[in-house]
Amino acid sequence: MSMQQRFVFLSPTGGNLHTTMQWRRSGGNGPHLPISIQANTNSQARIILDNLQPFVAQNANASSAQFASAILHSNELSTTEAALIQDEGLGQGTRIWWHARYATHAGIYQSTREAFQSVDNLRAAFRRAFGFGSFREALYSAISFDANPAGLLYDYNPTFQPADAATIRASVYPHGILSTTLHTPAPTAPAPAPPAPSTAAPPAASTAAPSNAAPPAASTASTAAPPSTVAAAGATVATNNPGPTPSAALNMPSSPSAAVSASNTPQSSPAPTLILNRLAAASASQRAADAVKNL
Questions:
Q1: Region Disordered: what ranges (predicted)?
Q2: pTM for this model (two decimals)
Q3: CA Rg, the chain, in Å?
Q4: pLDDT (tens digit, 9 = 90+) per residue, 57-115?
């Protein structure tokens, strides 16, 4: 990468690309041109040169204040920034751009590592790097050298502020991405996600089928056929009777009082007519027997 032509040199007399930073006196009390810019790739260096060199040549005779105002509001600068963001694949305001100085010389760096190396290796007493969140802010700082440049994020001053310089180095070196710096607000914790709707089936309504069992029959008079009767020796017997109760089987009365009543009841004597009939039958049988004997 070190031999690629990644260093842009914008000049009123014609710009070009180089393999090293072209330090020139510019900004501050000196002239605002030329402008030296380091890019991370040759394609990004070409974007800067092709878009800004025509503007620099056309406005070379303007004062420093006029030139700074004109380039900040130019379509050429807006086009350059958009193309750099697209080529690098980083969002707007993500890359840190540096305006590095030593003595009266100025240069603009896209690489944080290279910006710090250039400042740390310089032997000048005044060596410093100002960090910004956009290319246009670093460019304005370099050509105007405003004492309080807008958008300043870091003031890397290892000579006079070594402790602060060490803190800045620890926070952004070597990548120079704002999301890794101390200046990036901590991300806000996301709001808790609403509870997911329950996938469990709601309790099923009672779907038990109505019982098919017949309701208990109301107590009704028995429809059984009347018991048939069998005449035997002058007695009547129920053939469908489930059988006598224990007391009936033993010829016992159902209650003590009934037993007493039964034992004290006199038995009726046979009827007189029946007795006469029996005597008549016996007499007839005897006469028949006697007749047989006389034969």
A1: 183-271
A2: 0.59
A3: 64
A4: 999 999 988 999 999 999 999 999 999 999 887 666 678 999 999 888 899 999 999 99
